[in-house]
Fold this protein.
Amino acid sequence: MKLCFVVDARSPTVRSWISHFTGAGHQVHVISTYPCGPDAVPGASLDVVPVAFSMLAESSDGGAGESTGPKSSPARLLAGMPRGSLWSPVSKLRHWLGPLDVYRYAPRVRKIVARVGPDLVHAMRVPFEGLLAAEALRPVETPLLISIWGNDFTFHADRFPLVAWMTRRAMKRADALNTECRFNLRLARTLGFSPKKPWTALPGGGGIRPDLFGPVADHKPLPARWEIPRGATVVLNPRGYQRHVRNDTFLRSIPSISAARPDTVFVAVGMEADRTAQRWVRRLGIEPIVRLLPRVSQEEMARLFRLADITVSPSEHDGTPNTLLEGMASGAFPVAGDIEPIREWIEHGVNGLLCDPSSPESLAKAVVDALENTELRRQARVRNHELVAQRADYNKVMASAEEFYARVIQRAGAPAQEVKAPEVV
């Protein structure tokens, strides 16, 4: 197949997805919406189209991976600002004015697609990759697949009118959809995606690599900079700074958890420079038992999951977080916000505990209950490892993705007909 991806090529999830297709011998071209070098996508050709002021946006890859470093002076200046200072204004600028930038760059993307001549274009998330690809391909017959990630609908399309309007246009233009979870499929249909078009639900942004995330004995010494005592009980928040994740709930739950379990250390990844988190830690007087870490590599994240007794995800709305599945695969017991996409993976009291993400009391009770129920955690560890292996193993998910691509390409130009919804992998 000849494939074209419209993506943030800095993302480790994106790179992992694309590496499957380059490794399988398919011809791949990448249009990255963020500046990056050709080494970001080995085996693929690359164009950079910095849509929606991405030069001023966050300089990291958007996941657990390390920063790639901004190139421009404005981006370098903004990268040095702690979270909670200029981040919100920059993000708001992108979401209010960024959609207009889509129209500026759509002709360029259309020319690239014409030059490459792909069998399929895959935009991996809606703002702004899906919006850009949909506008670029509106007058073109090349089939378009759009992936829905995280809060593409529940935050971006819900809070920004122009993004919402363009999302509806994108859903109508899309020839196929990867929804990540069934909840987002229903939202996609309310936004104009036809039930006659094919869709799939491939979890974990391409799946979880068993060689990286798994309950493997880890004999390496912990990095001294983490300052995590050997033998401590560890509660890990891997979600970083995201608007839909109630990190304030997590931090405010810590005094109650610590009172019940004084041996516990609380680790929050990607929040070292978050001023709001720093203020909560000082206000609550929990500095000695909290570790606000920077973003870490995937290898270090895997080690943290294996170290953790509990992993928490207090999100108010979401898709299927990669970190939820990575933690489950690695043996950490999940405590998560009680929302529909999470219930597709977690059965309360069986392989995890659900809580009110806005309530520190609810989160604290769930964490303490889990820490005090060793048998529940043992059974959940076995069940979750099997569940992720069955439904979210990287090799299985990517094989399903490859089959789905072929199906969409084959179907392109065929008369519209009712399409039976495939099962989640």
User: Anything to note?
Assistant: The chain has a mean pLDDT of 87. The first strand starts at residue 2 and ends at 7.
